[in-house]
């Protein structure tokens, strides 16, 4: 069995001890930690998280959702000093370190002839304030002697980001009370952010076994929250009300519920299954728990480097949220966990006042979302990149497109009417309507001075074809849902949506990235024009789709970010170029191993790349397409790598729960559950025949043929 810490084959491949049985696809194991000289290399270490708190194992810091320090462009995740900062002073003959992605648990096992130490570290799914270390000392030699395992303690209270005071210290707990040192923005944040940390006193006297004891369990509880009463309540629950094994088993049970709620299964390719399991784990570890006994808290976004990193400006994007959230990570979450997708959109909605102010600041209307966002929703792009903050405006369209897909997947009218979803849709459309100018020469509307997704086009260009597409979709969406929101879209806006200028080269039948783009001599950073084909599904014929892929692939620089090649995979699968699709699919993860750029560089545990990879599996090899009107399934006649079967467990569509199984000849849809509380029924269509979709039926069809599932009536019928 092999081990990786970051995701797939990234970590040094080594032999593990064979005495301990593990599941190859969910438990990643090694007997040696990564070192950089004499210092543990935390960049290569795994993390545990639950969307509220997260930490890189054995690192010096813990991070909490929404806790930032620093003003404007210096804002970053506030570093809470680790409460598990101690090591065993022990010389083992056996060392095993493992991350179990199915249970969100890191385990350390150290053993010699006399004693075995097993430590589990996890962030609780049951009470998300909790970070737990569960240590079991077991006697192996029964010689009648007392056993003492000493420890090295490195307890730190001071933080560069938080003014902590020790408010209490006794045998039961230490309480740290503090506030962040700086406001992010004094217009939208009036006070420093509070944080309270309860933790079990560290094991300064080591770990003991009396002469007649065979084993002893130690529990170290940390509880962190912005409200002291909540932090204390969770600490007392874990410390006093439950046995340590019950705390862990409850946590494991809730992770099992996550996987039973939705997952992707690969039959015949364990290595690819590992990639998929780890990709989902690292994304889900930074999202709120699906089933928690904690009070609901506002979610504060997904950063490319996860919740476990970002404590410095320039490190893993300082914990900021970008377009990565909606464009790269969100789509794979939406179809399996629509409630979590809604949480992701709630972050943008919660910061709507900042978005409105940002639009006014630049002389526009509606909501303009910032390129980099943290606690308050003001733009926190570091000062050396202010041109990007000024011109990279497509993020507002990216957020609107994510809202479009949420509506398409759920038909959630309540969200539109009473949870500000309708405002999000309308106000982003208003922004684009105020942003365009009319060209008398082109007889079209234009969007000038913007930066496309390809950041190599800095500082700005005119008529980014991607930006114009998401702007058009944004206005169209506001019109489509107006019967629900009662927000009437002016005819002028619809004229804009229908008459935006799209740069296009007639000679090669290829979209141009922007006005004046040179198809022969320009190098680009990442996927841009190819995003028109997917995820946008912008109308075009197959010739143009193929040309976009073939022209832009060689123009993309080798050091570009990981997710680019996932979009090329989807495109080539659409065009039935299966060998090329396989080539770029493997490139999407093997070269990057979930770092941002090749060879382990850039942001690590790069969940943006993991999200792109999952899209290649779900929308590429799964052949799934989601539009405002319907869910389409048309798997291509090729499975990825060595897979014999591809199974999507728990796809969600308008209250229905579906399992999709794909083999080399056929695909099957099993309707696991229909939501009887939804008033609008679903129908399915195959070869121009239509039938009602009902509970517990199986639909089977040849691969490369199209099945459509849709509501029996249109959104605004």
Automatic annotation (TrEMBL):
It comes from the Eukaryota. GO terms for biological process: carbohydrate metabolic process. Residues 310-518 form the Glycoside hydrolase family 65 central catalytic domain. It catalyses: (5R)-5-O-[alpha-D-glucosyl-(1->2)-beta-D-galactosyl]-5-hydroxy-L-lysyl-[collagen] + H2O = (5R)-5-O-(beta-D-galactosyl)-5-hydroxy-L-lysyl-[collagen] + D-glucose. One of its GO terms (molecular function) is protein-glucosylgalactosylhydroxylysine glucosidase activity. InterPro entries: 6-hairpin_glycosidase_sf, 6hp_glycosidase-like_sf, Glyco_hydro_65_M. Pfam families: Glyco_hydro_65m. It is an enzyme of class 3 (hydrolase). Keywords: Glycosidase, Hydrolase, Signal. Residues 1-19 form the signal peptide. Its EC number is 3.2.1.107. Belongs to the glycosyl hydrolase 65 family. Catalyzes the hydrolysis of glucose from the disaccharide unit linked to hydroxylysine residues of collagen and collagen-like proteins. This is Protein-glucosylgalactosylhydroxylysine glucosidase. It comes from Rotaria socialis.
């Amino acid at each position: 069995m092999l081990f990786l810490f970051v995701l797939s084959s990234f970590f040094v491949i080594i032999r593990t001890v064979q005495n301990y049985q593990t599941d190859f696809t969910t438990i990643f194991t090694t007997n040696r930690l990564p070192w950089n000289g004499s210092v543990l290399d935390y960049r290569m270490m795994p993390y545990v998280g639950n969307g509220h708190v997260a930490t890189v194992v054995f690192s010096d810091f813990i991070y909490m959702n929404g806790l930032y320090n620093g003003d404007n462009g210096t804002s970053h995740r506030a570093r809470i000093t680790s409460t598990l900062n101690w090591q065993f002073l022990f010389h083992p003959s056996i060392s095993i370190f493992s991350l179990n992605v199915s249970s969100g648990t890191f385990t350390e096992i150290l053993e010699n002839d006399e004693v075995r130490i097993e430590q589990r570290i996890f962030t609780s799914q049951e009470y998300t304030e909790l970070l737990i270390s569960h240590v079991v000392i077991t006697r192996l030699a029964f010689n009648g002697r007392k056993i003492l395992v000493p420890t090295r303690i490195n307890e730190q209270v001071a933080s560069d980001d938080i003014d902590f005071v020790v408010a209490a210290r006794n045998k039961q707990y230490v309480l740290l009370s503090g506030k962040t040192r700086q406001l992010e923005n004094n217009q939208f944040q009036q006070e420093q952010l509070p944080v309270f940390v309860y933790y079990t006193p560290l094991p300064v006297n080591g770990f003991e076994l009396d002469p007649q004891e065979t084993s002893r369990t130690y529990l170290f509880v940390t509880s962190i929250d912005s409200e002291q009463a909540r932090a204390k309540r969770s600490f007392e629950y874990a410390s006093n009300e439950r046995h340590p094994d019950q705390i862990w088993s409850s946590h494991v049970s809730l992770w099992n519920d996550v996987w039973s709620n939705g997952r992707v299964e690969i039959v015949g390719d364990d290595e690819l299954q590992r990639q998929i399991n780890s990709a989902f784990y690292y994304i889900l570890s930074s999202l709120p728990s699906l089933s928690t006994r904690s009070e609901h808290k506002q979610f504060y976004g997904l950063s490319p480097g996860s919740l476990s990193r970002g404590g410095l400006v320039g490190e893993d994007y300082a914990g900021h949220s970008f377009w990565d959230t909606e464009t790269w990570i969100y789509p794979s979450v939406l179809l399996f966990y629509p409630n979590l997708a809604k949480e992701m959109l709630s972050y943008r909605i919660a910061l709507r006042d900042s978005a409105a102010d940002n639009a006014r600041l630049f002389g526009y209307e509606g909501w303009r979302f910032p390129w980099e966002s943290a606690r308050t929703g003001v733009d926190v792009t570091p000062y050396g990149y202010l041109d990007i903050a000024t011109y990279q405006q497509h993020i507002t369209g990216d957020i609107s497109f994510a809202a479009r897909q949420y509506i398409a997947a759920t038909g959630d009218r309540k969200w539109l009417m009473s949870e500000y979803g309708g405002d999000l849709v309308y106000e982003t459309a208003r922004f684009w309507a105020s942003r365009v100018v009319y060209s008398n020469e082109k007889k079209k509307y234009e969007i000038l001075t913007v930066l496309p997704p390809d950041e190599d086009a800095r500082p700005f260009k005119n008529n980014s074809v991607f930006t114009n597409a998401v702007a058009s979709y944004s206005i169209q969406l506001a019109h489509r849902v107006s019967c629900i929101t009662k927000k009437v879209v002016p005819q002028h806006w619809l004229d804009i949506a229908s008459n935006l200028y799209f740069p296009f080269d007639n000679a090669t039948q290829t979209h141009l990235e922007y006005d004046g783009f040179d198809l022969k001599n320009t190098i680009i950073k990442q996927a841009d024009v190819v995003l028109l084909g997917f995820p946008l599904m912008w109308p075009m014929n197959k010739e143009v789709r193929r040309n976009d892929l073939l022209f832009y692939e060689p123009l993309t620089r080798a050091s570009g970010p990981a997710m680019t090649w996932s979009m090329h995979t989807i495109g080539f699968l659409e065009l039935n170029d299966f060998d090329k699709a396989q080539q770029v699919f493997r490139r999407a993860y093997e070269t990057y191993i979930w770092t941002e750029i090749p060879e382990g560089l850039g942001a690590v545990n790069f969940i943006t790349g993991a999200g792109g990879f999952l899209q290649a599996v779900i929308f590429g090899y799964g052949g799934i397409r989601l539009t405002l009107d319907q869910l389409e399934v048309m798997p291509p006649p090729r499975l990825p790598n060595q897979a014999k079967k591809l199974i999507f467990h728990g796809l969600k569509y308008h209250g229905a729960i579906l399992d999709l199984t794909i083999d080399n000849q056929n695909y099957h849809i099993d309707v696991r559950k229909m939501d009887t509380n939804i008033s609008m029924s679903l129908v399915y269509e195959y070869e121009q025949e239509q039938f009602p979709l009902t509970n517990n039926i199986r639909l089977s069809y040849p691969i490369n043929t199209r099945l459509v599932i849709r509501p029996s009536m249109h959104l605004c019928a």
